[in-house]
Every structure is written in structure tokens, then in C-alpha cells.
Amino acid sequence: MIKPLQIVRTIADLRCQRAEWQAAGERVALVPTMGALHQGHLSLIACAQAHAQRVMASIFVNPLQFGVHEDLSRYPRDEARDAALLAAAGCHLLFAPTLAEIYPQGFATQVMVPTIASPLCGTARPGHFDGVATVVAKLLIMATPDVAVFGEKDFQQLTMIRRLVQDLNLPTQIIGAPLVRDADGLALSSRNVYLSPEERRQALALPQSLTQARHQLLAGIPVARALDDASKALSARGFDPVDYVELRYEDSLAPANDWTPTDPRPARLFGAGSIGKTRLIDNMSMGQAMK
Ligand code: AMP
Question: Whose CA is nearest to atom 11 of ligand 1?
Fold first, then answer.
């Protein structure tokens, strides 16, 4: 039996329900999203269920994190479908606020974590992470969950949020959930719906190039060469532009350009670029074996 999903649109109602649950001794989890849900998002709900008795999801397409020439107006939106998926997954509450509820007239505050937000996607998307940091700080303050779950699909975002929560002393535990891929290896993304069948095939070059670079690195090929090979492979297979292919340490996101297979510090490959008008990102740990 699918339990009904409670949908709330105001911060007051969100706080009221969360306070009721916490007063009853129940742990509360939050899974922030922009909607257009897929199995990657639903894996975060499952992860949240393992850490809390009550799971809240939020859907808010945050204009602050989109650049002027980005896809804010065409970003896929289907609340009824998302709500049905959340209900079927056993989520208890959906917070789906209006724009005015989150950014009322006169809103002027920005949250920034520049050291973590500057490299990788921060270079190609100036201001993006400031928008993410601002909305996530607000969501965590308004919902005050015991735990919040974010996907490793957006590893730079996850790293920034961990720093933000620590720096601002927010009382929420941040949990990172593994990246979920399609059967052929492409990372699931709400933006994959933009891809034509031909572009969808080309997009596979991203996980394949990172996998190839990973194998080269583990075989002792120098970092610069492995990254350059991957970048060239992406260009050759239709990525234009290739924004970056980089190897960085997981904790600080500092470059790992001298990494060798005996380096004990966890490192991760990151790649991003565009196929047609669709920008795709991916990342792979150097530690875990890839399926
Ligand atoms: P979005 O709706 O794209 O803003 O993503 C909301 C949350 O879902 C973020 O924490 C993402 O990292 C996570 N997410 C998106 N795609 C995936 C995926 N393929 N695997 C795991 N988590 C994901």
C-alpha cells in the first residue's frame, strides 16, 4: 500500500511537521532536489530511509544557480509525476515552495565557499555554486533535519556542502550517496532528457573516457598524459567544449597531479563537457572498483 505523500509549500508548515516528528523522538532526513526525478534521486531517498524514520524531499528549481544563458526556463518540471515517485518510494513529505517563499522581495544574502567553488564546474559556471550554497544553507536552516543526503554525482557540490555545514555550525549530518548510472554507464541526470538518441550515444564517451583514464593511472601512466588522452578522446567523440578532465583529492579538491597508485589519499577523476546544448558531468573514485 502506497502511503499518501504530504505536500507542503510554506516554511511554516515544513517547520511545524518537522518539529512534530522530532518531538515524537523520530529522526528526520532531508533530500534536496530540483525535481525531474530519476533512480539516482530515489537512491537518495532509500539512503535517507536508512538513517531516519521520516524522510522529506524538496523540489525547488533554484534560479540563483543558473547562469543567464543556461537552461532555467526549459529545465524539466513535472510535480505530479515526481510526487507519485516519492510516494511510491515511501517518502513522507514533499516540500515544494514557490519562488517567493524562498526569495521574497528584497532577498539579498549570499552564501559562498570560494575555495571549493572555484575550480572544476566553478570555472565553466561562474556563480553556480554561490547559488547552490545559498539555497542549501536556507533549506538546511528552514528544515533543520537530523541528516541530509546528497549524491556523489555532484561531488564538488557535496564537498562544498560538507564545508558549509561545518563552517556555519549547522546541526545536520551530511551523507553522500553513490552515483547511480544507467545500465550502459551514463550517469543518470535530469538533463539526459535533452539528449537526442545520437547525442545519448555520444554522451557515453564521458564515462568511458574516465574509465580509460582510471585504468591508465592505475597502470602507472603519468597523470598529465592520462588526463590529456581522456580529454582528446572526448573531443574526438563530439564533446564541444570539453570543460575539464582532472584528478583531485576528495577531501579538499586540491589537484592530484603527482598522484601515483601508491598514494594513500583518496583521489577522484572529474570530467565535464557539452554534447550539443547539453552539459554533462561525471566523476569516478580511484579507489573503488568500477562496475
Ligand atoms: P538535482 O535534482 O540534479 O539538483 O539533484 C538532487 C540530488 O540528487 C543531488 O544531491 C544530486 O547529487 C543527486 N543526484 C542526481 N543525479 C544522481 C545520480 N545519478 N546518482 C546519485 N545522485 C544523484
Answer: 151
Whether the CB of 154 sits within 6 Å of ligand 1: yes
Question: What does the alpha-carbon distance between residue 107 and residue 66 come to, in Å, rounded to a whole number?
Answer: 17
Long-range (24+ apart) CB contacts under 8 A made by 84-90 are 85/37, 85/42, 86/5, 86/37, 86/45, 86/57, 87/2, 87/3, 87/4, 87/5, 88/2, 89/42, 89/45, 89/46, 90/3, 90/45, 90/49, 90/55
CA nearest to 16, candidates 6, 1, 4: 6
Does ligand 1 lie within 6 Å of residue 146's CB atom?
Answer: no
| 291 residues of the chain, pLDDT tens digit each | 777 899 999 999 999 999 999 999 999 999 999 999 999 999 999 999 999 999 999 999 999 999 999 999 999 999 999 999 999 999 999 999 999 999 999 999 999 999 999 999 999 999 999 999 999 999 999 999 999 999 999 999 999 999 999 999 999 999 999 999 999 999 999 999 999 999 999 999 999 999 999 999 999 999 999 999 999 999 999 999 999 999 999 999 999 999 999 999 999 999 999 999 999 999 999 994 443
Q: What is the pTM of this model?
A: 0.97
Cis peptide before 241 (omega within 30 of 0): yes
37 CA closest ligand 1 atom index: 2
